[in-house]
């Protein structure tokens, strides 16, 4: 599947002239912007007869890391190469949904009708039936966690009347945000040769999501949600093992490879990363982790109070599986992961007997939810992080038990700062509050070994 000048011409120009018919007095300006986007697409590599198979394959691999606040580019590789967004498409579907919630055109409790077109979507999906209804918040969670294609269409039809008209709205919004190379043809990311984007464009959308919709961004931190009697896990597996990562979205089709847009916070600094065209979910996630490590490491190198990530442990926990936004085939229910090799974890030699008792209590409380505010090079840095977290959310953390735990991983030692003994709702509220103050936080589910 290649993107040619003809396919872009046939896809973009009808959109441009339709905009001129519906935009009234603003049609000239919108048409000019659209034609400029066509020129930009041509400049990005659509000149001549089109991309060869080898060139298209090479264009799939791309990445970029950006400072979320300043927009400074800290790393880029082929960031303007055209590729397919796959289920990263749903980020724009959600962006427009959040716009509608802010404008009052939708409400979280509102029920939306499910059409036969929505029901017909291929997996991954919630399994909606035509004639039924779906709450807006349930649709949001379905997109964030399960990457449900049927739920994406329900939102598209509720906001645009039809999926095709909604796709036009998506492309217009992309232009408004500065995503000059992106064209949307559907709301889900299911395969379409004319649906194209770049890593740079998706870094723009990721930053816009953070700045324009901070109230709704915590949805992207959800690890799972219950639907139809099942607990549906989030496809973003890296979020559970990378310190400070709290979103955003994975994507996969055969044509796109494995994509990931992600955001993480450390020491009050938030970065946005986009990796396109990974060969597997494991290689994609490891690539993102390495790029973020490198970008975060530049300003913090040499500080023992900066959060660390034990790379060997992180890699040991990751095993190849059937993960992905399987837009073309359902995720196997029978998929069983190999048991990962775990690093040896010991209680830290805490300074006081009282602290040691607290750490022991924390281990015993691992049947409840908790939070982790970082993994540090020294025990003192971990204790400092826990003290700071308590100051920022004292009411929510009043019943939590603190522990700084020493983790041995080969020759490396890190100190994990955790608070346990919480319920899931409180743990997620705490992380939302700490993230709002620029502090990293990961909600830790029960049963996860300390």
Describe the secondary-structure layout.
Elements: H1 5-22, H2 27-46, H3 53-60, E1 62-67, E2 73-77, H4 89-103, E3 111-113, H5 116-119, E4 133-135, H6 136-146, H7 149-160, H8 163-177, H9 199-212, E5 224-227, E6 230-233, E7 245-253, E8 257-266, E9 269-278, H10 281-300, H11 311-317, E10 344-347, H12 353-364, E11 369-376, H13 379-392, E12 401-409, E13 412-422, H14 424-436, E14 442-444
Antiparallel strand pairs: 1-2, 1-9, 3-4, 5-6, 7-8, 8-9, 10-12, 11-13, 11-14, 12-13
Helix pairs in contact: 1-2, 4-7, 6-7, 7-8
Architecture of the largest domain, according to CATH? 3-Layer(aba) Sandwich
Number of strands: 14
Mean pLDDT: 76
Please provide the ordered H/E string of secondary-structure elements: HHHEEHEHEHHHHEEEEEHHEHEHEEHE
Please state how the strands of the largest beta sheet are arranged side by side.
2-1-9-8-7
CATH C-level label of the largest domain: Alpha Beta
Form type: globular
Helix content: 40-55%
- DSSP strand content: 15-25%
Annotated CATH topology of the largest domain: Beta-lactamase
Question: Cα distance, first to last residue?
Answer: 46 Å
Provide the CATH superfamily of the largest domain: DD-peptidase/beta-lactamase superfamily
Give the tally of structural domains: 3
Structural class of the helix and strand makeup? alpha+beta
Oligomer: single chain
Radius of gyration: 23 Å
- Residue windows where pLDDT falls under 50 for at least 5 positions: 1-59, 299-365
Count of DSSP helices?
Answer: 14
- Biggest sheet architecture: 5 strands, antiparallel
Organism: Azospirillum cavernae
Region (Disordered): 316-341
Biased composition (Acidic residues): 321-333
Pfam family, one: SPOR
